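Notes taken during the Thursday session

The instructor put the following on the board and asked us to keep it in front of us for the whole hour. The protein is Type II toxin-antitoxin system HicB family antitoxin. We were told not to look anything up and to reason only from what is written here. First, the residues (132 in total):
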Amino acid sequence: MRHYIGLIRKDADSDFGVSFPDLPGVVTAGTTLDEARDMAEEALAFHLEGMEEDGEAIPEPSSLDEIMSNPENRSGVAILVSVKDDQPKIVRVNVTLPGDVLEQIDKYAEAHGYTRSGLLAQAAKRMITEAA
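Then, after some discussion, the predicted structure tokens were revealed:
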């Protein structure tokens, strides 16, 4: 199991955003703390798997002291995000969508701190759960 420090931030008019100082560019969000944590685990797993597939070196996790010593990180609340080594495999798919729908997806995802894939996966999970 791998463990990385995620930083949660929330502005008054935003969702709970999560970023990973050890993995710049990996960000996600959720409307609740629980959802943000779930999305953080998913985003971390997806990113690490992609790095492995691309043959990139996976950075060693920094300690909490190292992360919080950076003044830019002090506005976030630190959480430990774990990824099991036996997580379900992330699969890339090719999807066809109307251009205007894709534009709406991308705008919403960007405004709420999601990736396109993260948003579509979360929406699908929500619909499946509600239908059950």
